[in-house]
Amino acid sequence: MRTNPKVGLLGLGLMGSAVAAKLLRGGLELTVFNRTAAKAKPFVELGARLARSPVEAAGGRDVLITLVANDEALEALACGEQGFLMGLDEAKVLIDMSTLTPGAIRRTAAAALARGSQMLHAPILGGPEAVLSGRATVFVGGPEPVYKRVRSVLEAISEPVHYVGDLTSGTLTKMSTNVMLTHLLMGTISSLALAKRAGLDQMLVLETLSRIAGVNIERIGRRMIEGERKRTFSIRNLVKDQHYFYDTAAELGIDLPTISAARDYFIRAADRGLGEEDFTALYSFMLGEAEEGQ
Ligand SMILES: NC(=O)c1ccc[n+]([C@@H]2O[C@H](COP(=O)([O-])OP(=O)(O)OC[C@H]3O[C@@H](n4cnc5c(N)ncnc54)[C@H](OP(=O)(O)O)[C@@H]3O)[C@@H](O)[C@H]2O)c1
Predict the structure, then answer these.
(1) How far apart are alpha carbons 113 and 61 in whole angstroms?
(2) 6-166 sits in which CATH class?
């Protein structure tokens, strides 16, 4: 691929706009398309070319990036009237950077391959601000030689860029991290709401959480991965704590749905005889349940 590849970008929502800004800032020649054409105006003013259809955005490009809301949006741009699939050929690489299901990724890759074009799926962990400041993480799945050909384009968007394996590995890696982010979101909401309702210093609670969260994830996660069995805190006491947290918050008028769900899960583990085990045994409990369910 040439040193300064020509890039087409479909989707100028919050994320697509940040990616467009980064590609232009990196000096790449960019053609953009968005269903709502007005959103392209600022990028045209910065030097991007405006395509009137998805297929036109793919024309003459080395790399076509799609960054849209969901599976249905990608399908609409791929297969709809003037869909981009018609503009693909063996000279082009398709990179989808949206958060999609593995099924949609596989279907799009197969359709691209039928046109002779290889596809990578490279979802982004981090929002528009992280992309603009170069702090977003990109997980890339797909054929490694193809990744090596287009790596410079991905690195122009943000770093680090991690090559993680086959086509759907990027989305599965991102989902694995996003699951924790959902818990962090609900945890932050729950802790701050409880602190506010109790009339406490919310900033003290927030600062404490910020200081200990990363360290604890690292320490506890490592013990789980490495299978360390040392008993530090029993599941029996963990159940007791969740009862206390939930009931105390309820008395203050705060519902803690994730604490209630976690408590029920811990009770299930205790009922299977794990009450006296260390709380890290919940990790193998979850994997064991997954195996039983297969
Ligand atoms: N925002 C974040 O913090 C963040 C972070 C990481 C990953 N993501 C993922 O990145 C992707 C884009 O997110 P976003 O925040 O940029 O979303 P967004 O602001 O809602 O933008 C969605 C984009 O998809 C287009 N679109 C939606 N439905 C369509 C359809 N039926 N046909 C054609 N185009 C359609 C929209 O076009 P219009 O402008 O015409 O509506 C727009 O360009 C999503 O998969 C999201 O989960 C987002």
Answers:
(1) 17
(2) alpha beta
